[in-house]
Amino acid sequence: MNKIKRILLVEDDPKDVELTLTALKEYQLSNGIDVARDGEEALDYLYRRGNFQTRNDCNPAVVILDLKLPKVNGLDVLRQIKADEKMKLLPVVMLTSSREERDLITSYKLGVNAYVVKPVDFHQFIDAVKSLGIFWVALNESPLTNSNSPSLTH
Question: Could you report the per-residue pLDDT of 111-123, keeping only the tens digit for each?
Answer without folding.
Answer: 999 898 886 776 7
